[in-house]
Structure formats: C-alpha cells, structure tokens
Amino acid sequence: MEDEHRPARHARKTGGDRSAFDRFVEAVYLKVSRPSFFFVCVTVIVLWLVSAPLWADLKAWQYVIHTVASVVTLLLLALLENAARRSDEAAQEKLNVIAEALAALMESRAAEDPQLEVDVRKLREAVGLEERH
Fold first, then answer.
1. d(CA 108, CA 96)
2. Spans in the chain with pLDDT lower than 50
3. Can you give the pTM of this predicted structure?
4. How many angstroms separate the Cα of 67 from the Cα of each of 61, 74, 100, 115?
C-alpha cells in the first residue's frame, strides 16, 4: 500500500521487462563508449583518406564520407540521447527515494521540532517536481 504523501512512481524496468529497443540501445551505448569504437572510427577515416587515388571524382569521394558520417552521427545521437534520458530518469528516481526517506525521518522527529513539519512539507512538494514541469 502506497503512502498518501508519496507520488506514484513508474516501475523501473528490469532486464526481462525491457523492450528489444531498450536492450539494443544499451548494447550500442556500451560499444560506442569504449576506446575500441574510437579506434574503429579513426581506422575508417584513414581508409577513406588512402582510398582517394581510387576515385576518379574527388567530389564523389568526399560525398561518401560526408554521407556516411551524417547517417552514423544521426543514428548515434538518437540512441545515445535515449540512453542518457533513461540514465537521468534512474538518477532522479534514486534522488526521489532518498528525499522520501529523509522526509519520513524528519516527520518522525517533527513532534520534537515544529520547524521540521514545515521542512517535511517543502521536501514532499519538491519530490516529483520534475514530473510537474
């Protein structure tokens, strides 16, 4: 039974509850955040640079790298933003749980210090503030 002061929370998804897209985003995030991905990118650029003599038209040669870079950048941006959003939501959930625990502790001591009642009310109003904006 949920406490009347606590706002409703979204259940955090566990490994089995996550969608295929969420698992894909997590896998991509883990791969691209490693040094090996950087070295793959450098290798692609070096291969592109040394391939210049193989192209009859240098504009087409430049067009290829610009197109590939734009597509990869757009896809990675979308995936990494999704991962960052989920990370932010997880951090906010943790902060809310800590604030709720602190509010409950302060409420239990409010009989000894009347100012704590005011502070508990302010803290409870602040919890979940990000969901109201």
1. 18
2. 1-11, 133
3. 0.59
4. 10, 11, 49, 62
